[in-house]
Each structure stands twice: as structure tokens, then as C-alpha cells.
Amino acid sequence: MATIGDLIERNARYHGDVEAYVFEGQRQTYSQYAERVRRLGSSLYDLGMRRQDRVAVLSTNSIEYFEVYGAAEWAGYIVTLVNFRLSPSEIVQILKDADPKVLIFEEQYAAMVGLVREQLQGIVHFVCVGGESGWALPYASLIQEGAESGPPIRSRPEDFCHLFYTSGTTGRPKGVPHNHLTAWNAAERTTLNLGVNGSSRMLQVTPAFHVGGKGSPLASMLNGSTLVLQRAFNPVAMLEEIQNERVTHTFMVAAMLQAVLDVPGRDLYDTSSLVSIMTGAAPIPVPVLKRGIEAFGKIFSVQYGMTEIFGPVSVLPSHEVNPNGTAEQIQRLASVGHVAPELEFRIVDEDGAESPAGTAGEICVKSPYQLSGYWNNTLATLDAISDGWYHTGDMGYLGEGGYLFLVDRKKDMIISGGENIYSREVENAMFQHPVVLDVAVIGAPDPLWGESVKAIVVLKPGEIVSPADLITYCKTMIASYKCPKSVELVSELPHLASGKVDKVSLRQRYCAQG
């Protein structure tokens, strides 16, 4: 086997009766999935698609979403993943950049697509999932009318198969194409790190347009196991799905775990089938992690990755996640573990020289599975890749035992009065306050210091505390100059699809206010 398309055929041959996907009452076996993938690939070919042409998808999680993935992986097309949470103008921007021939969209986005489709002259065909429109083809007809044997083309290992777009934490989203080799690596690494096997039942809640929403499904496919899909995150629905479908593996960021733990009557749900909960985006605060382990057991692992590297950069495995251990073990929880063995890795200062252990610098990696270049963006490629090294834009340091600690995004670092202040350190300190549920720290313009530290805080339900008291508490945890000069209390923080806080929107909202 050399491509993900080959894997689709293998599963149909050897695991044909196994459930591949479970979603809202639908159950699709691997043989059914393969046939629908071939039929869709055939219809797309009849619509004019050829190898390495793009087909874009705008949808929430569904089986149809993964059929589009599969058609591209089978036939050699490139599936372009579009974040449904973006504004219409941002979606148009991505679609113009990717230049797909076909756009497949869910019915709930028909009105929006209808308003902007005249701006999308490169798209030859629009396809609607779950409904009909006078100007769009019905998805069901593509499945019905496509040849059961598939199109007369097949994918190759070097073909691009996925075109992800970054979350835009540092500006306009950038296209990141990955080929079948990098997708295979992601499947194998996820299998190894999470212990996925043929009997696993993986729950996928995070969006399929995100690279983190594709790695776990690839591992499920590699092992011929079952992927349970949910359209969006709902803590009660998640607990019900785990109980009813006997889910073994899932993924949660800190905010998701907090919401699940706070569900009234959570103990009444049977979650004993769970063997692995992967976390990412940012380390989970120790108090929340302790509650999680009390509820679900010692099954939490931490992964650090990015769109540009398909597969984890580093992993803190579940046997090393011990919030009740020694001081060293507890300190380790703030790390993202050890760097993956297939990566070359270094941390550099502003001059490109390697930073000594314990000193923060920019994390750089070199991997055969990293992006070769951004889509249609040579300047961004030249800025990010130098001598084969990908500059992540993340700041971190190596601690005792070679554990990797993240301290900030390079562009999020606050410089106040000439001092470098890392937002993650401030956030970790404020998280220790017993009434703080969520917090984000940004730099706000300051006429005297250049920038000052500003904290945006979400309190736990029913709790009350003043901004001044939060600042005073923070001064007991870290040096005074690192502490917030101002605190905003809000009901919630904006989050990106990856689970990371959207600090771009926070700066737009608060920095003009000072």
C-alpha cells in the first residue's frame, strides 16, 4: 500500500463488515464507505476533476465530510478544508487562494454560499449536502450516478491529498498542503501514541477541517476500527455518546474537559470504556487535570503539534501524567513531553544560535513529514523555512530530562519596559486562583512601558472576585513586573477551531481601549 486510497480499499477487503463511521443514527461499514467514495470520485471526474485538482468542503462533521476526504484520497484530488466559523469574506479569500473546481457545502450554508458564489468564478460546480438548490447539484445524485468502480485515475504517494488552512493566529490563514506520505505518518504516530487498535472506538468531536480533526480518524482507518462522529461539542451529548457507543478514545482541550466535568450528574454516565483522552492546544491546568483523572482515570496524554507538521511534534504519554506525584512530576505537567523521535529539533535565539537548556527561544524542527511550502505563498514559505528547518513561531525551552516547555507564541510575547514577559507564565499563575475558569493574557499599548500586561478572565459560575484582588493574587505567584496591570472580567473567551484562544480578536477588541 502506498496511499490512503489504497488503505480505503484494503479496509473494504479485510474489514468490510466493520463499522467505519457512526453518526446521528447512521452506521456505515468499510465496504459501504469504499463504494460511496468510489462513486463520488467518479462523479467528480465526470464534472471535470483531474489529478491534483481541488475540491473544497464547507461543512460541520458528518459522514459525507469523510466521503469527500476519501474521494480525494482515492482519486488523487486535493480536498480543501474550509473553516465554517469564518466570515463570508474570509471564506471567499480561502476559496480564491485554493482555486477549487468544485465546492461541496452543507445545506445550512446554502444562503451564505449563494450570496458569494458570483465572487467565485473559478468554481465550476456547487454541490449541496442534505438539501437542494436551483444552482447547486444534490450530493445524493453524485453518489447515485457515479460508477461503482470509481474514476479512471488513482492517487500516487507523492500527490497532495489535503489542503489545510492555518487558524490565522498571526494574520491571514495560509494554505498547508500535505501528501499521502505525511498522512500515513500521522496515522502511524497517532496509533503508536494512543494505543489505537482494531477494537478501538474513537469519538471525533473537533472539526474535520482542522489538522487535529484528521489525525485521529486516519489512525482509526489505519487500524480498521470505528470512528464515532459528533457534529459539534456538547458536554452532555459527549457523555451520552461515550456511554452508548462504548467509546475508547477521544480528544479534549481544557475548556471541553472543564465543561464535561461540570455536567450535573456526570457520575451517572458509564464512561468505563475510555482508555485514552488526548489533550492539546495548551496544557490543562493541574486542578482541572486532577478532577479529570478522578473522573476518568490515568488516561490523559498531551500532544503538541501544528498544521505544518502532520503528526505530533512532542508527546507527554499518559503514564507520565501524574498530578498527585512528586514535585518534579507535577512540574512536568506544564510541559508537552519529549520531542518525537523522527524529528530533528533545536531551540534558537534571535540570532539563530542554539539556546542553552532552560533558556527560552524559538522552537525549530526538521522532519520528512513537514510542509514543503505554503500554498501560493512564497514569502511566507521563505520566512518559515530556512535550510530545511521549519521555524514554528512558538517559544519554548528544554527543562530537566529533556521535557519541552512552551512559553508563548513568538508574536504573543509581551515586551514591557525592555523585559520579555511570556503570556503563558502569567496565565498559569492566574489559573491557580480558585475562582478562575479561563484566562488569556495579551500585551496592551502603554505610553510609558511600550506594552503592559492585560488579562481577560472568565470566572467559575456563581463566583465573584475583583480585578484588583486577582492582580494581588498574581503577585504572590510570579514577579510583580510580569503581573497584569489591568484585568477584564468576561463571560467567555473566543476560541479557534484548534481549541487555542483567539488572541487576535482579543487584541482587536481590547488593545484599542488600552
N-to-C CA distance = 57 Å
How many structural domains are formed by the residues? 3
Strand content: 25-35%
**Which residues sit in consecutive blocks of at least 5 with pLDDT less than 50?**
none
The major β-sheet equals: 9 strands, mixed
Give the beta-strand count. 26
pLDDT averaged over residues: 91
Based on secondary structure, the structural category is alpha/beta
Outline the fold blueprint:
Elements: H1 4-14, E1 19-23, E2 26-29, H2 30-46, E3 54-58, H3 63-75, E4 78-81, H4 88-98, E5 102-106, H5 110-116, E6 125-129, E7 137-138, H6 139-145, E8 160-165, E9 175-179, H7 180-194, E10 201-204, H8 212-222, E11 226-229, H9 235-245, E12 249-251, H10 254-261, E13 276-279, H11 286-296, E14 300-306, E15 309-316, H12 327-332, E16 338-339, E17 344-348, E18 361-366, H13 378-384, E19 385-386, E20 389-398, E21 404-409, E22 414-416, E23 419-421, H14 423-431, E24 436-446, E25 450-459, H15 467-475, E26 486-490, H16 503-510
Parallel strand pairs: 1-11, 3-4, 3-5, 4-8, 5-6, 6-7, 10-11, 10-12, 12-13, 13-14, 25-26
Antiparallel strand pairs: 1-2, 8-9, 14-15, 15-16, 17-18, 18-20, 19-20, 20-21, 22-23, 24-25
Helix pairs in contact: 1-2, 1-3, 2-3, 2-6, 7-8, 9-10, 10-11
